[in-house]
Design a protein that fits this description.
Elements (H helix, E strand, L loop, with lengths): L7 E2 L3 E2 L15 E7 L2 E2 L5 E5 L4 E14 L2 E17 L3
Parallel strand pairs: 1-4, 2-5
Antiparallel strand pairs: 3-7, 5-6, 6-7
Length: about 90
Amino acid sequence: MIMGMPCEINSILKLKQSQGYPEKLKIGEQYQAIKEDYRIIPVDVPIPLVNNDWVAYADVIIRKLIWENKHTILVFEIDRIYEQPFNVKV
């Protein structure tokens, strides 16, 4: 028997709209997202928020992270909106 908790380590928050990508980005606003599986993501420090096409639009700060039923539930706050979005994956 193998014991352990499968998890993924992320330093970027990549979301689809169905996972909670905000329709409108507003600095200081908090949003909730749900990712499949367990994720380890930096908390209380700015990380890039990217959409499903790997385009970064803002920095967010994870304020709450919950692991539950093979999902990661996040509450994040928009820290900075980029003047010019950019592709983080070539």
